[in-house]
Design goal:
Largest sheet: 17 strands, mixed
Helix content: 10-25%
Mean pLDDT: 84
Radius of gyration: 27 Å
Amino acid sequence: MMKRALSIFLTCVFVLGLLPTAALAAEPDSGGLCPHHQEHSFEDCGFIETVKGQPCGYVCPVCPVQTLIDALPAPEDITTENRDEVEAQLEAIGEAWVGLSDEEASQLDTAHLEAAQEMLATQDGQAAVDIPAPLAGETGHFTVTGGTLDTDYSYAANTLTVKSSATLTISGTTTTDKIMIQDGSTANIVLNGVSIDVSEEDDACAFEVAGSASCDLTLQGENTLKSGRNKAGLQVQTSDSKTASLTIKANGAGSLSATSTVYGAGIGGEKEKAGGTITIDSGTVTVESYLGAGIGGGWLAAGGTITINGGAVTANGGSGSYGGSAGIGGGAGSNSGAGGEGGKITITGGIVNATGGRDAAGIGGGGGENGAAGGEIIITGGEIHANGGDFGAGIGGGNSIYDHYIGGAGGTITITGGTVT
């Protein structure tokens, strides 16, 4: 790491020494002209030809990046001995590229850069995935390792779309960008320190497993997903006869926090959509929602198929004026609609803390005009703490918000192992 950092530093020092003064600062007598700013105008650079002492104030953002690219060695001069230094130069280019707009980036001549990347990819024993590509900025605020841009994944309109089963490691912090697994795809994703907060934007989903897609999700480090109104924090749902599926596991102490602002589940369905097929094998998973289940259905919707085999899972439903949602299971109802049924919930291991909102079960059905049934709940192992909201069961059905209406049936509950409180 020290060697790489030093290489980047030396590269930057070398390049800065090559830059003309105009590219480094807006010196009054620099002229300010370059291939990307070929004539003066008051609108672009404040230059007034007839006013003495009114210099060009333009500082070109493109030239420093182009100079970094041009400083790369010729392909035939790239060897296994200087590979580390070349990769450090590529990283420095990527870091500088982030500051360019799409229009500015389009002015770069990248032929030299592409030739260097190709040479590194074809060196003895070296794979293309070892190259720091794509360049920073090409995938928004995310850094993606593995796969090939525009083949295994793409980035457009603030969305990183995963298209194949290539293992992709994603990191980055953003309040604008989102991740989507393309409908019909089978994805293998490692979230490594990802923070996505699009909670201020209605109908914005931080991470969606779309349609009938499936995703094996590995947690590394701390990861946070916050979605906007109507969407699940991590959306995995049944919709239009398609069911998405998700399996979560962790590397070491990997963790995930997933939150919906309102109506969607923490993990599961969006507003009025049932949860898909959700499996948690390991990791620390903390989820919550307001009116959607912690894990399961969105508002007015059933839980789907939920299996917990291990890990430490904390799932909190929310309370509304007309009922609440289950910690694990169905979403909340309304003053004229029943809560969501629990679905099929299986727990074989792990530590599970599930808390329902008002009138909702900790594990099972949501509360509403009529309480919803608990569904099919099977517990064979683990340490389970299930707490219903006011008037809701710990495990089983949700309650009606009206005294004269009907509470939800408990469902089919089978407990053959584990510790349940």
